[in-house]
Amino acid sequence: MALPTYASPLERLWYYTYLTICVLIFLFLIAPILVVIPLSFNPDADFTLGAEFLDPATYSLRWYDTLLTLGHPATADAPRDDAWWSAVWERSTWVQAAKNSLWVGLWATILATTLGTIAALGLSRPEMPYRRLIMALLISPMIVPIIIIAVGMSFFYAKACVAPDSAMALIFGWMLSEKGCLANSHLGVIVAHAVLGIPFVIITVTATLSGFDQSLIRAAQSMGANPRTVFFKVIMPLILPGVISGALFAFVTSFDEVVAVLFIAGPDQQTIPRQMFNGIREAISPAILAVATILVVISVLLLATVEVLRRRSDRLRGVTGR
Amino acid sequence: MKKTLILTTALVGLGFAANADVTVMSWGGAYGEAQTEAFVKPFMAETGIKTIMVDSDNPATPVKAMVESGNVTVDVANIEYADAIRLCDEGILEPIDASTLPAGADGTPAIDDFLPGAITECGVSTDIWSNVFAYDNTKFPEGPTTVADFFDLEKFPGKRGLKKGAKAVLEFALMGDGVPASEVYDVLSTPEGVERAFAKLDTIKKDVVWWEAGSQAPQLLADGEVVMTTAYNGRIFAAAQNEGKPFQIVWDGHIYENEMFVIPKGAPNMEQAMEFIRFATSTEGLRASAQQISYGPARKSSMAEEIIYKDGKTVMAPHLPTAPENMANALETSADFWVDHDSELNERFQAWLAQ
Amino acid sequence: MADAAQILTTADGRPLKAALAAAQGRAKRRAFLLVLPLLLFVLLTFLVPIAYMLMRSVEHDGFAASAPALVEWFDENPDFDPANPPEEAFAALVQDLARMQEERTTGIAGTRINYSVPGSISMFKKGAREAAGLEPPYKEALLAVDANFGRPALWRGMASASNAYTAEFYLVASDRKLTDAGWARGGDKERIYLYLFGKTFMISALITVICLLLAFPVAHLLATLPMSKAALLMILVLLPFWTSLLVRTTAWIVLLQEQGVVNNLLVGLGLLDDKGRLSMMYNMTGTVVAMTHVLLPFMILPLYSVMRVIPPSYARAARSLGATSWTTFRRVYLPQTLPGIAAGSLLVFILAVGYYITPALVGGADGQLISNLIQFHMSKSNWSLAAAIAAMLLAAILILYWIYDRLVGIDRLKFG
Fold first, then answer.
1. Disulfide check for B34: which of B168, B245, B293, C310 has CB 3.0–4.6 Å away?
2. Chain B: partners with 3+ C-beta pairs within 8 Å
3. Is ipTM strictly over 0.85?
4. Considering the entire predicted model, what is its pTM?
5. Across-strand partners of B136?
6. β-strand B247-262 against B331-332: which pairing, if any?
7. What's the fold here for domain B13-128+258-326?
8. Do C261 and C371 share a domain, yes or no?
């Protein structure tokens, strides 16, 4: 909103006040995220804030180092040879949590994106019956409070078990808990996170499909393409940016999810958010801030990817502007 | 396609962190670290059984929930004395055969080597610890010296840290109101006594910061969020010793008890769990624990020689809850009382808190 | 003949109407088949667990399963007088108490009765310990152990709990309590559930209003700036959206605690005395500030998408007709943003009502919301009660969701 030339002095004053207010609100949005970054380089265990934060010369990587050494069996002054690093990979608490988070996130994303994309294709067909009701149902994991979902899952997943030595146990057993149940198992966390990611996939993919010209499909069919060719050669390239955005949303949802993990996961499914949650409850050490800083960097990268993809998608679909 | 499937399967197998054989649930923080050093690391080195520690604010709560939902992931848990009896009565815990516990280093059978009451039907004592209150002596050089001082906001202004729960807090409030340690449970057994305890808490309610995990207490004190707080004595000791914090423990009116190792009913690795308990509660195990944190061992043979802290110079005896000079006005938690009243008083406490 | 001529047929002689219907049916089935795998997945992993939870909210066999003699007696005597139960009833109770002691079910049975009649657990434990040694007449013997065994409220509670299916948990979650005369509202000191529900809705409304006030100018600025600049500023709105919730919560703790950045800054600038540091964390203030920050993007985005398509010409027309800028805003601009306000406010309110993490971490004692109470009861193994509270919250959310769908339409949800 540029200031019109006929604005009165009062309007001018109001306009600049308004701009100041906006700057303050942006500051409110961004400052908390940025403030953790310099604090994570704080060399002291003592977590007080002084002027030294303005001086990068005092910065230290001490707390990033503790991310490697927490849970590490060796003593602090042990030489950092290959054996030391392989122990980091196998034993360090934060590294284990990162591995679990990544793998759970990856599988949840694959599950949510595959099922979600196929469903979105059906949902955006004009013939789809009960469209509104089904949409409402599929979006509901985002609306229903996570605590309710987690409570329901913790009741049900403890009972959702396979009989030992059954065919199901042979196929899924290695991903279930020792008792063959969904609770306390990697599979349980994966499906829980997949459900939570589905609304995001549905929303982004149907949004991409809403600008999709259905006549392109008919054109391809009239030229003799079979359904498979139509899907991979025509539909997929056009909706791919939406699918990837949805997948990234689903991944972030899983990567940041802690309540369901707290309720249904066992000690073997320690994830980064769970580790952070416990850390924050007990005491915010600068180590938590080091993790936070890493996560901020990751989210910046993800956001950049999504923005680039969306612009590309808009350009491809011929939509101008944002 | 098949190849990728096999590949991804293999990747997932590699990807997830490996499972543990024995999972021990304890209270986290300095206590958890001490137990990792004293029990877990030597146990793994000696037996090769992969053992991990998981933390909880109070392991008795998740253990009960796990057993009742038939979903047990913990093999050994570290819980309070009254809870060890209460949960045993309720069929939540496995009975432990005391005769399989190792004899003392001097050959005394375990039953005689442990202090009276330190072995129950379902539990074996890991240490004797205490609820104390502590303050930052840079803020109050003259210091509070009695429980009554804790409730005196005029003489010692500032926020107070208190554990979020009825147990030990109600007793503490009554002692702050002038009830001598020996009469606390008689008073608390009456409805008027309960009212009296809550009335005393009401006087400081708006100045209380409630903590749940044991490690929050020293942190609140260190951050200056409170000027004094109740805490588990070992946590304060660790902060003062290891990080040089100016924390001072007040032993007046401290509330001590045994901490117990128990095995939840349906634990996935019962045998290894028992092996862990035998290892940890041996003469050497309990002694090693007391070298890591200021909680007293419950075996006579562990105290046969003077216990020195891991820094190599601090003598532990005066820092233990059971040291004679700390027992002047001390209260032993009544297991009988809490076995019966735990649920009700905690419910009442929760309602009081939400008001 | 006349009829047949009017019916259009396809090339192979079938009526066109039927052929069309068949084709449409096929298309419908195909579309539905695409959605089916996901529907099944959501059904199994999401809907069934929630249905299971609802079932738990009306089922608890803790007492019914451990007191067979009393259950039988209650079955035979449905119309007994709770104020004065006969000797056989006491005999059955003593028999069951002895059995509970043996099978270690005192805790679970007592807990079940304790929900409606507080104080029952310790009575049951005391009674069960003595039961084996009691001699008839059982009524007097048991009353000698604890006079409360004669309370009508206890007998009402046991009669009700002898059936595994019950609506009692909803009564308890509405702060009702079983008294000697029947169900009644609990005393002032015991009413917490409805109070917390009310508090949760109030706080959510407050957060919604703050979000709206903060989001409005920002969305307006974004909507009126040239596209390239707006896109750049949009990043500032989207970054918090993409940043881990736990990171943002951590950041607020670091900023607002008593020794935190804000307090240090104020003390450093001399605006605040070192002793007079503000308490902004671990209380309601902390919850409100951190939740506002988390939910603000959910308000900005819908507002922005509505404001972007408001043609500036209306405002210009109003101004040229002599309206002041305030009137223009109030009478012309604001009404056009109402769909965005409705969409954003409803979404923020819905998300706020069920919030768990932030209040759990920064709420302290008085910043807890209803979700935290659900978690509390879950951790204490009060599953049926937790499920009942969750079901009540779920009902509220579903109503709001339905309103949202009516007013805004769920397919209008978008991110970024």
1. B293
2. A, C
3. yes
4. 0.89
5. B247
6. parallel
7. D-Maltodextrin-Binding Protein; domain 2 (3.40.190)
8. yes
